[in-house]
Amino acid sequence: MTTPRRPSSSLALDPEILLSHSAWLARLARALVARDDEVDDVVQQTYAQALARPPGHAGNLRGWLGTIARNVVRMNARSQSARVAREIAVPAPTPVETPVEAVERAELRRKVVEAVLALDEPYRSTVILRFFEEQEIGTIARLTSAGEDTVRTRLRRGVLRLREQLERKVAEEARGAADEGAAARALLYLHLREIAAGGGGGGATGSAAAARGLSREGLRLVRDATVRRVAAAALVVAAATFGWWSTRDPRPAVPGALPAEHASKPPRAESPAAAVAADRSVDPIAPVASTPPPAAPSAPAIPETGTLRGRVTGPAGAPVAGAHVWAVRCDYHEPELGLFDFAERAEETLRAQDHGVPPHKHFPATTDDDGCYEITDLSPRPSWQLLAFDRRVGATVSEVRRFDREQRTLTVDLRLVAGSRIRGRVMDEEGNPIGNAIVRLVSRADHEEPWDQACVAGVIGDDLGRFDAGFRCGQSIEVDCWAGGFLRTTPSIVRFETPIEEVVIDLRLRRAPGTIVRGRIVDPDGRPLDLLALLEKEFPEIPAARRPFQAGLCAIPAESWPQADESEIPPGGAEGRIDFVTGLYEVAVADDFRGVLELRIARAIVGTATLADPKQPVDVPCDARLIPPTGASATYPIRFVDAQTKLPIDLSRQVSPWGSDTAGISAVPMPGESDPEHGLVVYRCAPGLLKIEALLRGYACGLYLVDVPADPPAEPAIVELWPAQAVVRGTIRQADGAPASGVRVVLLRKEPGGTINAGDLATNPDGEFEFPSVAKGEHFVVTNHPGSAPAVVRLDVEPALAPLEIGLAAGVTTRFRVVPSPAPASARTRFYVLDPNGLLLDGVESTPEEGRPSASEFEFSLLPGRYVAQVVRTGFAPRDVAFDVPAGDEIVLSIDPLPSDEE
What we know:
By secondary structure, the chain is an alpha+beta fold.
């Protein structure tokens, strides 16, 4: 049965309900305004408007309050901008300008006009309409047949390009100036940024007013004629970029005393060419003289960009207005998400975006009234996948799309697959809620594999018997349910009739035939046990709604116990259910049943009791010591700080850095113990090697390694992140000059403790690659492609870095053999090739499979020179051997087994 939820016609707000959101609203206001003393004003104005105009329904109250708060901040900014404009508009004394100054000013105007006309379309026409013709955003959108968000993006990008051109000219004219002139120029830029950051508006009028006000102050600061030209150009740039500067978050970083120690030694074990070997201490790396990059020109060309546009329609073909569209960067030219993966996390992605936390590699847009979207300024080097979502219609994903040298604009139309949020209750035949019941949903859609997932009904309190499966979509969805002591329901089919807010399903279970046995779950001493609290203690990394999955009870007939396969329930047995409210178990068995009751946690038997008579229930003990370790038995605090300022990075509006152990198991941030506003994340993880992948906006990417002890340290480890200040892009070609597609490219950043993985990707069919967020400093680009020798390029990254041209060469085939050979049946073997300074060039990981041992023979293509081979095998001591290429027929590496106490 499907029942759409209908909003109520009105809602009278209780002030107590509003006040319960005070802390959250204050945090939101603090993120929206520049000064802390404005926070209380925004909160009070938000509450005043909320009480004056209550919402039409009791939906997402927090989201509704957030919208009011943003509107309040926006209106306050407009009022402030208007006040500043009125004050600036007061006529100032007309400065007396010399003929030389008049000529210089006219020349400056000519240079600015030339710079604007040199912009590529659509930036040129957009900038002219806004700043020269003083047209409003909406008017420009109508004239150019684009959305208002697109117009704002074009303005911002166009102004940035204009600023870059003028700043280059400023730098050229200032080259060779006296020290006092350079100091005056620096002081002027500082003054411009202070005024721009504190201003508002950003429109044509506001920019002109800012230029007038800055001109008076700038000419007072700078007297020298040469520096005056520099200042005048800077003033025009500042006026044009006034709105861009004013949108930046001017809040200062949170101060705090931090230890200077930081952890950084990075491999990426799952892709050997992406890092330095995980189990090896790496020495600082000397410059690598292989394929040096070309010298950067003084004025690099503005990089080309691509545009994705199209229309979003519903299942019936009608355009969908207000749908959310994301372009997702695909660095390996493979789909990032399938339909059902995306549908499951679409609402989470949208919530993060509403809170200012766009996920990594996602570029958002919203469809207009005709269902059209446009996403501009995309890099043409990676591939892109389009995702579309509307919570009242459905979701969809596109195939991977890519630009080529001839086509920088792609049209991708998207048709949503119908979907909705699904929730409901599980009850018995009398209407009593049943907790800890399993609800299974199978989604089906054309050209997609079925998506099978289960959720558990609430186990205590008001959530007892309630389930929420989240947003689901598909041509059809099957729903069924089961619980211990009850019969499994017949699958029911859910079909969506869009638009719809959500689907509510009530599931009723019938009692299983036989005798119902109920009894207590107790501790080893026979005392009642709070099993839910035990699960929370043992599995804190698992969401509370899914912890009941970890515990189960079953009845095993005496003739089948003990079982050879503990994962199956034998004939005559039965699966039970645990009632977390009463602390009782419940299982339905045959009247003549004789056997054993087993309590299982995390698939391990933690307690048994003999059931001699179904009419005489028994207590089932639980021995927590028998619960198998999950690996996540340690906590490790890490504070992320800015490498330049040494201040904590505010993570409250970011996606926390992702962590995993060497087995790929995720390390879960602990919300109650972490302090994201001050850069502190406490991870629940396994002792040993922890890999942290930091992908924070505004900072260079990095993969860091920390060694997690069994006991949490007194002070958090420090991971320093460098601001992203450059883009590294280039083209890789075969020996014959043809583009090299699918080449693995790794970017390594040199740091005092070794090298940090700053990103890895694959070239597109045109041989192009791009790393969009790179810190300044010494880096290495390493290429890896079957049949070609690794190429290494050392480069000093600067903001104006020219594109790289890297050629591949065949190299000399070099063979290796590890002895003893073959490897032990359970041993994993990792083989790496490094340069003499420890820079990883290539590598292979071999694991046993289907009874076959890991490999002992390896082959690489290498250029003539000196290298180091490193082998790491389970149960053996690591071995490093230096060798020269050409190396003859085969290089043999003998390894020695570890003593038994060191394995």
